[in-house]
Amino acid sequence: MGAKAQDVDLATLLSRVADALERLTPSAPAPVDFAMADAFVWQGGSGVFEPVMKVNRIPLALLTGIDLVADQLLANTQRFARGLPANNALLWGARGMGKSSLVKAVHAEVAADHVHRLKLVEIHREDIATLPSCLAALKAAPFRFIVFCDDLSFDKDDTSYKSLKAVLEGGIEGRPLNVLFYATSNRRHLMPRDMVENERSTAINPAEAVEEKVSLSDRFGLWLGFHNCTQDQYLGMVRDYTRYYGLDADPVEVESNALEWSATRGARSGRVAWQFIQDLAGRLGVTLDRA
Q1: In this structure, are 99 and 239 located in the same domain?
Q2: Would you give the end-to-end CA distance of the chain in angstroms?
């Protein structure tokens, strides 16, 4: 076979390989219209912002027992919506005390005063490594965004926290001015205590090893702690829910049943109070419309 024929065969083969690779390569996602909804979920694998037409949340006024942290997060978010400096926020502490509910409720409260300008974007914990791509898409949009990660934490050998550190403050580009990052976690330093202690005991320089991981939480300028509620606070939540949804039941009986409900679960929290209210409403034949 002559050199010319070989060149033709090679060119044909390369063309086929290029065509095959093009078919295997996923097409770029279509540009998202952020005006179509107030909330989105970032799908890191596909690079798509999925609109959420109705967010699962309750009104801010119903999140009782956390007034101080609620006021702080609301004020921080209002400043951000007005284009003023604001801090990334870490909401940490007791389970079921309204951390994620507060983020969603505050967004609704502030978005109502800044119509169609403040958007909520949820990113799943497993997609944190794709956060830079998410922020790159948000940066060019004519809106302000709260990027929200619920139940954020990192385990041993998980290095995706480095991407988050760089995005929050440490990277050469940093966080876009139109984006704020809110996260909730049961852990104050976003990693289990035994992980921190293990780093301290096994590292050549224990202080530096611990500092590398614990410093992530320092990138959040606003730390909001949530603690277990008292019995009075728990019953106050139940009363507020009962009144708000117009549940017609004997108050004494409701409180007695609510205490029994919490005792069977071994906990008192906003989540437990809401679960009791759902049970009560079901028994009364009343539907509950969350905002």
Answers
A1: no
A2: 75
